[in-house]
Design goal:
heterodimer; A: 75 residues; mainly alpha; Non-ribosomal Peptide Synthetase Peptidyl Carrier Protein, Chain A; 3 helices; 49% helix; globular; B: 282 residues; alpha/beta; 7-stranded mixed beta sheet; 6-stranded mixed beta sheet; 15 strands; elongated
Chain lengths: 75, 282
């Protein structure tokens, strides 16, 4: 799952090495709102899930682990 | 200058908006597909033009999506059933413009073209306007134009004209819109409060047999979207029985009599200049 998420992140931001970092994606301004929106729609497609409205919040996309946690909620 | 542009809507006007935006705007583009039917041509065109796509029927989800945008964002709403919540309209970094299928401030709400024809107006029209939180279709007007309604204009004809011309206007005005150089039109008569809703039909879909032939013609044409099929529930009542209108035909005629002829499965209205044939069933 992590690899798939990294691939999605990399497609969105090709210049960032997501595999190494444990950075705060939002707080460190690696991702902005438009990127989150993009990532959400890619995640929904890749994992065949529909993220609920209440989960669409920047805090759920602030790190790879948080994204994994979110997806696991739907599996 | 805007950092993001979001299109929400469907149909020709949304499609043409996407094409126009793609010509002039190279930054971040998003398309929200909020419709009941499945993924359409418009989504494919949006994707081809490098729009990111969100397909959802969930209003709250759209609201939360839009709340995420923190940079200067323009939303183009065209042929769109999603009503923007106050929270989004009030966001200072977001501006929303909407295409309305009517000549505002007349005929606010849904299906303006239907009501314009039914009410036997001489013109319908279209309006591009900003969305405000003061009510549906009340925001400052960017551009509006009247479109003539003739004795044989059907809802589909008027809609097509509005969409074609509306798309051309958007193409012309787009660079002014994204540079915030639009001069707002001052409209005198702003006191019109009536709003039409999507669940309303002219005379609740009932054709009154006592109507004049011109009114019957307006009633039938106002909901005629053939070959599309939006409104299917028109009916009339005869001898306390309800009959469904299946199809109709309006012909010009020179017969100097006004009469009503009831045949099996056909109702014919005839006047000195018009003949209407209605096919009906139970």
């Amino acid at each position: 799952m992590e690899n798939k998420i990294i691939k999605i992140l990399k497609n969105t931001k090709p210049n960032i090495n997501f595999s190494k970092n444990k950075k705060k994606l939002i707080k460190e301004s690696i991702l902005d709102s438009f990127d989150i929106v993009t990532i959400i729609s890619e995640i929904e497609k890749e994992f065949n899930i529909s993220i609920k409205a209440n989960d669409i919040a920047a805090k759920n996309f602030d790190s790879i682990s948080k994204i994994i946690k979110l997806i696991k909620k739907y599996n | 200058m805007y950092e993001n542009i979001i299109v929400i809507g469907s149909g020709k006007i949304a499609l043409e908006s996407i094409k126009t935006i793609s010509k002039f705007f190279k930054k971040r583009k998003f398309f929200i597909y909020y419709e009941k039917d499945h993924f359409s041509l418009i989504s494919r065109i949006a994707k081809k033009n490098k729009f990111k796509i969100l397909e959802t029927k969930n209003k709250k989800k759209i609201e939360n999506f839009l709340s995420l945008f923190k940079k200067k964002t323009l939303i183009i709403s065209s042929n769109n059933n999603y009503l923007f919540p106050k929270k989004i309209i009030d966001m200072k970094n977001i501006k929303i413009i909407n295409f309305h299928n009517g000549y505002l401030p007349l005929y606010k709400g849904r299906n303006a073209q239907v009501w314009s024809i039914f009410n036997m107006e001489k013109f319908g029209g279209f309006t591009w306007h900003y969305v405000s939180n003061k009510g549906i279709d009340t925001g400052p007007i960017i551009f509006r134009k009247k479109i003539r309604i003739f004795h044989n204009t059907r809802a589909i004809d008027l809609t097509k004209k509005c969409m074609e011309q509306g798309a051309k206007v958007f193409d012309i005005l787009f660079t002014k819109i994204i540079n915030d150089k639009i001069k707002i039109k001052k409209i005198k008569n702003k006191k019109i409060k009536k709003i039409y809703y999507s669940n309303q039909l002219p005379n609740n879909g009932k054709l009154e047999l006592k109507w004049k032939i011109t009114k019957i013609s307006s009633f039938l044409r106002s909901m005629d979207f053939k070959p599309l099929s939006y409104f299917k529930n028109q009916f009339f009542i005869l001898n306390k029985k309800k009959y469904k209108i299946i199809k109709y035909k309006i012909l010009d005629t020179k017969i100097n009599k006004v009469k009503k002829i009831l045949l099996k499965e056909q109702l014919i209205f005839q006047s000195n200049y018009k003949k209407i044939i209605i096919n009906y069933g139970k």
